[in-house]
Design brief:
Blueprint (H helix, E strand, L loop, with lengths): L6 H12 L29 H11 L3 H12 L6 H14 L3 E5 L2 H11 L7 E5 L5 H8 L3 E5 L10 H7 L4 E4 L11 H11 L2 E5 L7 E2 L2 E2 L6 E5 L13 E5 L2 H10 L21 H11 L2 H24 L15 H4 L16 H9 L12 E4 L3 H10 L29 H9 E4 L7 H18 L1
Parallel strand pairs: 2-3, 2-4, 4-5, 5-8
Antiparallel strand pairs: 1-9, 6-7, 8-9, 10-11
Bound molecules: pyridoxal-5'-phosphate.
């Protein structure tokens, strides 16, 4: 394969054009995996400073004005900005109610509690997700029960969910991993049949579509995170619970505010988990730009797809399912099974159906992350880092293999797809400020690293 330019020139291009310092609000979710410290990378995995500079060019003055609005209002909690943002985000998601809370983990925990989950209940969660999904279940006093995921999407495998149901199961939390909705139609049917609570973990999926509806409107309730790097991110922590059910919404609202709706009206034992007015004002401005950001993410994903398809055919790489087209598996049947490959035996009928369900023409991922699968991930990531390209790993260790969940007794090997994904996934830069030429260069750099290793 012809290489368009030598590696050093890629690094030089990035360094000269795009070098700037990077804000990492939480290294566990941004660049902890990069072999080279992010500040020295020409193209960091995420650069929130660059994002906000870019945002300012599209919405000039919006952020300073929003800050001034709150500053001069003298109201910092439970005020007009939160009320307005709740209404606007509910309309955007297509739900009747939105309850803003302190962060996405709280949103999941409070949604479980508002939906009636009790301590000791079993809640089915994906074996492959950010650990916060599991933590929220534990914090509600429930027991996270992992079901394995489908290899092509990383979302819940319905067949495995069925095997994990017991008389103590009361809820299922599908995660829309990397911004692609889980196969909600089948999960909803199962939850309905068994009388189970279904809560979307939509922390990575603001604006994602599934069969014509938006994430957040696909279950009894949904939990969002507004962590700064999310598709819709605040300038700090934030979260929200979406639901059509007004009783559910009222319970969630009370649980997040000392059990009260009004002052001294403590009907439930609750806590304190609130979005503040400054974050709500910022989120209102960013919400007006979310569709454009997501459209740009889709364009960038298409560039990655196009630029990486030869490496997929060569069996060196797996890329995410494209959208609205046939799953890549058909194309890969003759490929060498050398790297990041999924044995055909593993592709169950449910997985095939899941792929179809989560990849239809009216189903659009929000492309929160663009995650490929490779063998020798650490070497590939190091090669990218030495060429100035930051990468991430979401996630290197499935929750059941962490010390935090050792006592649940899930042995290594018990959730094989999740465990293999954890070894192979590599997240490439995917932020809406990126230019297509940059993404092409990341893909070329990755291609060179793959060829160098094989
Ligand atoms: C899938 C998933 N669930 C839950 C959360 C928790 O959100 P927060 O960090 O706002 O508590 C996150 C955040 O990264 C996430 O990615």
């Amino acid at each position: 394969m012809m290489l368009p330019f030598p590696l050093p020139s890629v690094a030089a291009h990035f360094r000269s054009t795009y070098f700037r310092s990077t804000f990492h609000a939480d290294s566990s979710r941004t660049d902890a995996e990069a072999a080279v410290p992010s500040a020295s990378l020409a193209l960091p995995f995420v650069d929130l400073g660059r994002f906000h500079t870019w945002f300012d060019t599209h919405r000039p003055g919006a952020i300073p004005l929003a800050l001034t609005r709150v500053h001069t209002s003298g109201c910092f909690l439970r005020g007009a900005e939160v009320t307005a943002f709740e209404a606007e985000f509910a309309t955007y998601c297509g739900t009747r109610n939105m309850v803003c809370v302190g962060n996405g983990t709280d949103a999941l925990q409070l949604a479980l509690q508002a939906g009636g989950a009790m301590p000791g209940d079993e809640v089915i969660v994906p074996a492959f997700t950010f650990i916060a999904t599991w933590n929220a279940v534990s914090l509600a006093g429930c027991i996270p029960v992992p079901a394995d995921v489908c290899p092509d999407t990383g979302t819940l495998d319905l067949a495995d969910v069925r095997t994990k149901l017991t008389p103590r199961t009361t809820a299922i939390i599908p995660v829309h991993l990397y911004g692609r909705c889980a196969a909600m139609a089948d999960l909803s049917a199962l939850a309905k049949k068994r009388g189970l609570l279904l809560i979307e973990d939509a922390a990575q999926a603001h604006g994602a579509r599934y069969q014509g509806k938006r994430a957040g409107s696909l279950a009894h309730a949904a939990a969002f995170s507004f962590y700064p790097t999310k598709n819709l991110g605040a300038l700090g922590d934030g979260g929200a619970i979406a639901t059509d059910d007004p009783v559910f919404a009222e319970r969630a609202r009370r649980l997040a505010n000392y059990g009260a709706l009004e002052k001294h009206d403590h009907e439930l034992v609750g806590g304190n988990s609130r979005l503040d007015e400054i974050q709500a004002a910022i989120l209102r401005e960013k919400l007006t730009f979310l569709e454009e950001c997501n459209a740009q993410r889709r364009r960038l994903a298409a560039v990655y797809h196009d630029a990486l398809s030869d490496f997929v055919t060569a069996g060196l790489l797996q890329i995410p399912l494209p959208n609205g087209t046939a799953p890549q598996r058909e194309k890969r049947k003759t490929a060498r099974n050398t790297a990041g490959s999924t044995p055909e035996a593993e592709i169950s009928a449910t997985t095939k159906k899941n792929n179809k369900d989560t990849n239809g023409p009216d189903t659009l991922p929000a492309w929160h992350l663009y995650v490929v699968r490779v063998a020798n991930r650490e070497k590939i990531a190091a090669a990218l880092a030495s060429a100035g390209v930051g990468t991430g790993v979401h996630y290197p260790c499935p929750p059941h293999c962490t010390p935090a969940y050792a006592e649940l007794g899930w042995k290594k090997g018990s959730l094989p797809v999740a465990e293999r994904l954890a070894q192979e996934v590599l997240s490439l830069p995917m932020m809406p400020y990126l230019e297509e030429a940059e993404v092409r260069r990341v893909a070329e750099t990755l291609g060179q690293a793959l060829l160098a290793k094989n």
